[in-house]
Design a protein that fits this description.
It contains four helices and eight strands; from the N terminus they run ββββββαβαβαα. The chain is α+β, with helices and mostly antiparallel strands. A hairpin with a 4-residue loop joins β5 and β6.
Length: 198
């Protein structure tokens, strides 16, 4: 993790106002995290500025064991990027491979592997095969913090059902998960996303 983590950042896809649930899968001991949202999003690129994404939709599904281990998951982002011919429909699809959280910054994140979509091309990814997608709670919502508490306190009590809202998702290409969740990279990216928002 040497050097500046932002040196490898090519693109950030951002969407606010997401909602989600964390609940048991049927009668099994496994749990599923579902996050979704619709509306307007942004694609931020340091070299060429901010693009607005209309007809935007975001779907994340992640399955965990009762011990809090990620079993599998996927992420799909759809939308139409204004002013960019051909950038419509499926913008990015990913397989979730690793989970982490940062309680002090109310953020959770996933390492991913690209599985398709408009943004899955070398000029955006820099040749990387995956990225990091993470979510953070907006001030005052508190609900995402409750989800993080479920994982942080798992040794004291089992999971419980939880619903949450007012969450922002950022998908950063191709920054690795440890740089985002466990060093100053998260703070730098969140500041950039807020400053460059329309």
């Amino acid at each position: 993790m040497g050097g500046s983590p932002n040196a490898y950042l090519d693109i950030i896809a951002e969407q606010s106002g997401l909602t989600g649930t964390f609940s048991r899968i049927g009668k099994t001991t496994d749990w599923t995290l579902n996050i979704s949202g619709y509306g307007t999003g942004n694609i931020l690129t340091p070299s060429s500025g901010n693009y607005t994404v209309i007809n935007n939709s975001y779907f994340l599904n992640a399955e965990f064991t009762s011990a809090g281990k990620l079993v599998s998951g996927s992420l799909s982002i759809f939308g139409d990027v204004l002013g960019v011919p051909g950038a419509n429909g499926l913008l990015l699809s990913e397989q979730l491979t690793k989970f982490g959280y940062n309680a002090s910054q109310t953020a959770i994140g996933f390492d991913t592997i690209f599985t398709g979509g408009y943004a899955d091309q070398p000029r955006f990814t820099g040749g990387s095969g995956g990225d990091v997608s993470y979510l953070f709670g907006q001030p005052g919502s508190g609900s995402l913090g409750g989800l993080i508490s479920e994982f942080a306190d798992l040794s004291k009590h089992p999971f419980s059902n939880i619903s949450f809202s007012n969450v922002t998702a950022l998908t950063a290409v191709p920054l690795p998960l440890p740089a985002v969740l466990f060093v100053s990279g998260l703070t730098a990216l969140l500041g950039m996303g807020r400053k460059r928002n329309i």
